[in-house]
Specification:
With 248 residues, this protein is mostly helical. Helix content is 76%, strand content 0%. It contains 10 helices and no strands. It starts with a helix and ends with a helix.
Length: 248
């Protein structure tokens, strides 16, 4: 993962930026420039950490002028926020895709297997070295920059909860789950599935995907023990009522 600023400069050759008649970059050129800045900044933050990464180093590695970086992001916190927002979107993408896929999956597939598929997508990203590095950086900077912590909560955690809750709403409609509040159920599910792995990542302790999946499967069984158990009780009660009903 160790990509240095020198490598970034080598990997990013100087490019002529197309400009409009007014002297400003065209819209497509500006988008390309911003993408290059974010890519380079991401690697430098990961390699050096937040404190050791400067906007000057990012500008030099991305082959753009320093005033351009300062004008676009204001300061290092603004640049890190932009990088973090993209990383959060990358984390949510597989979760959303997995949830959407399970919404359209066959009813013959068990609820447990559906949740395992969603959990596996989440763990694959959470156990990655980049995700762990960003987790540590975000935690360390949250005290000094509360808006970074707010960003992580609102665009990361809360959106993940909302996505999972919508999937649980679908399961409730099918009669596969019996929970009163799908939002709370989603919070519990996410915490038991990736909470431990996320905490270990924050402490800088790598987790093997195989052991993380074993824990995830056990956690899902415990989660469903209550949710499916209540469904079974309702179904059994209904069957008991039918048996007691006098024949006509």
């Amino acid at each position: 993962m160790g990509l240095t600023a020198t490598k970034a400069r080598t990997a990013t050759p100087r490019r002529e930026v197309s400009k409009s008649r007014g002297g400003r970059p065209t819209k497509s050129a500006a988008i390309e420039r911003d993408q290059r800045l974010i890519e380079v900044a991401t690697r430098l933050f990961l390699d050096r950490g937040f404190d050791a990464t400067s906007l000057d180093a990012v500008a030099e590695a991305a082959r753009v002028s320093k005033p351009t970086v300062y004008a676009r992001y204001g300061d290092k916190r603004g640049l890190f926020t932009a990088v973090l927002r993209r990383e959060i979107a990358r984390w949510l993408a597989p979760l959303s895709a997995a949830a959407e896929m399970q919404l359209g999956s066959s009813s013959d597939i068990s609820v447990e297997q559906r949740l395992v598929e969603i959990g596996r997508e989440m763990l694959t990203f959470t156990c990655g070295s980049d995700a762990m590095a960003f987790s540590r950086m975000m935690t360390s900077q949250a005290i000094n920059f509360p808006d970074i912590a707010k960003l992580g909560k609102e665009e990361g955690w809360l959106k993940a909860v909302a996505t999972t809750a919508r999937f649980f709403d679908h399961l409730v409609e099918q009669g596969a789950l019996d929970v009163d509040d799908t939002t709370i159920a989603a919070e519990v599910f996410l915490d038991v599935v990736v909470g431990h792995t996320h905490r270990m990542a924050t402490f800088g302790t790598p987790t093997e995907l195989k052991s993380a999946e074993k824990r995830m499967r056990a956690a899902i069984k415990l989660f469903l023990a209550g949710a499916l158990g209540s469904v079974d009780r309702v179904q059994n009660a209904a069957k008991g009522t039918q048996r007691r009903r006098p024949s006509r």
